[in-house]
Specification:
The protein has about 350 residues and is an alpha+beta fold. The protein contains eleven helices and twelve strands. Strands 7-6-5-4-8 form a five-stranded antiparallel sheet. The chain has a four-stranded antiparallel sheet with strand order 10-11-9-12. Helix 1 (about 1-20) packs across helix 2 and helix 10 packs across helix 11 (about 320-344). It is globular and about 80 Å long.
Length: about 350
C-alpha cells in the first residue's frame, strides 16, 4: 500500500508539470522535478524509467490523460494537449466505480483497523450498491498482531523512528531495538516489517507476529531508506535478505509432473527454461534424470529459497551450485531421518 501511495503522489506532481504552459519539460526534466518534490516531502526518489512508466499509465484508464509529445529546441518535450486538463477532475464511469469498489474490497483485511478509517469513508463515497464479490485474494484473518498494520502504516508514512520490542520462535526473551521502519511486506500469508537498526543502519526484517510492542521515538531523527528498498528484494525469494551474500546462478531439474507448474508459476522472477545445446549438456552430465525439464534462477541464498526448492520433494532436484544442492540435500536428509525414527 505504501507503494500505491507513492505512485499517487508522483501522479499528482506529474499532473502539475504536464499542465504547466510556462515551461517545456522532457523526460529528464520531469524526472528531476518530480524527484525534487518527492525529496521535499520526505519520499524516496525514482528513476527515469519509473517516470516513463508513469506517463504511459496516465494515458490509460481510469486517467486517460491526453499527453502530447513534441520537439522544442532539440528536446523531446511532454505536455498535456489541453492545458486545463487534470487527472483529478475526471468523472468515473459506472464500470470504473465498480472496479474501484472491488479493488477496495480486496483490502478488507484492513477494515476496522486504526488509521484505516479513511478506507470506509472512501467506500461510502462510491455508493452502497450491493454487488457480488468477483475476485478474492488470500487472507489470514487469524494472523496474530494484524492490528499492528494500521499503526505501522501510519508511523512509516510519517517517518517516525520506533522502539521495537520482539522475540523469536527459538527464544521467548523479549529484546528491544530502536528501528527506522521502511516497508510492510506480505509473504506466504504473513506480514513483515522491514527497516534499519538505529545504531548501525543494518537492514532487518521482523515478522509482525513476533512483535510484542511498538512505541514511537519522536525525539530521534528519521533516516530515509537509501535507494529503493523494493529493488533489493528482486534478488531473493521471500523476505530474508543477506546483503553480504552473492547472487547465485542456480540450475535445477523438474520432473514431467511438475515442469508445467513451475513454468507457469516461476520460483523466482529470473527463472528461465534451459533449452538447446545447454540442455543437451545437462542431460549428458545427469543421465539419471529422465524426461522433465531444466531451469535456472539467479538469486541470493536464504531460508525461503531452500524451503521452496525442497517443497517439491522428488519432483525437483537442485543440480548447481554444489553449496545450494548440499543445503537442500541436508534439509531433506534430516526430514527423512525423522520419518525413519518414527517408523521404527
Amino acid at each position: 500500500m505504501a507503494t500505491n501511495k507513492n505512485a499517487l503522489i508522483r501522479y499528482k506532481h506529474l499532473d502539475m508539470l504536464l499542465s504547466d504552459r510556462h515551461h517545456y519539460y522532457d523526460i529528464n526534466d520531469l524526472t528531476e522535478k518530480v524527484n525534487e518534490l518527492l525529496q521535499d516531502e520526505g519520499f524516496q526518489t525514482v528513476t527515469r524509467r519509473c517516470i516513463e512508466k508513469d506517463l504511459v499509465y496516465l494515458t490509460e484508464r481510469p486517467f486517460c490523460a491526453p499527453i502530447k509529445r513534441f520537439k522544442h529546441n532539440g528536446k523531446n518535450c511532454v505536455t498535456y494537449k489541453n492545458p486545463s486538463f487534470s487527472i483529478f477532475m475526471q468523472e468515473m464511469s459506472r464500470e470504473e466505480r465498480h472496479l474501484l469498489r472491488e479493488v477496495l474490497n480486496t483490502l478488507g483485511q484492513f477494515d476496522g483497523l486504526d488509521n484505516f478509517g479513511w478506507l470506509d469513508k472512501f467506500k461510502s463515497g462510491l455508493g452502497n450498491t450491493r454487488r457480488r464479490q468477483i475476485i478474492s485474494f488470500s487472507n489470514n484473518p487469524y494472523l496474530k498482531n494484524s492490528n499492528l498494520l494500521g499503526t505501522l502504516f501510519d508511523l512509516i508514512s510519517n517517518e517516525v523512528v520506533i522502539r521495537l520490542s520482539y522475540h523469536t520462535f527459538a527464544d521467548p526473551t523479549v529484546c528491544s531495538i530502536a528501528f527506522h521502519p521502511y516497508l510492510l511486506k506480505q509473504y506466504n500469508d504473513r506480514w513483515f516489517l522491514l527497516g534499519a537498526a538505529d545504531d548501525d543502519g543494518k537492514n532487518l526484517t521482523f515478522a509482525l507476529d513476533r512483535i510484542d510492542e511498538v512505541a514511537p521515538l519522536p525525539e530521534k531523527k528519521y533516516a530515509t531508506c537509501p535507494g529503493n528498498l523494493s529493488d533489493r528484494f528482486e534478488d531473493i525469494v521471500g523476505v530474508t535478505l543477506y546483503e553480504d551474500r552473492p547472487i547465485e546462478h542456480i540450475v535445477f531439474w523438474a520432473s514431467d509432473a511438475s515442469k508445467d507448474y513451475i513454468t507457469t508459476k516461476p520460483i523466482h522472477e529470473s527463472q528461465t527454461s534451459i533449452k538447446g545445446e545447454a540442455e543437451n549438456k545437462l542431460r549428458g552430465k545427469y543421465p539419471q534424470l529422465d524426461g522433465g525439464a531444466f531451469f535456472s534462477i539467479d538469486c541470493i541464498q536464504n531460508y525461503e529459497l531452500i524451503r521452496e526448492l525442497c517443497s517439491f520433494g522428488k519432483e525437483l532436484i537442485v543440480l548447481e551450485p554444489s553449496s545450494i544442492r548440499d543445503e537442500a540435500f541436508k534439509r531433506i536428509s534430516m526430514m527423512v531421518d525423522k520419518y525413519l525414527r518414527i517408523r521404527t
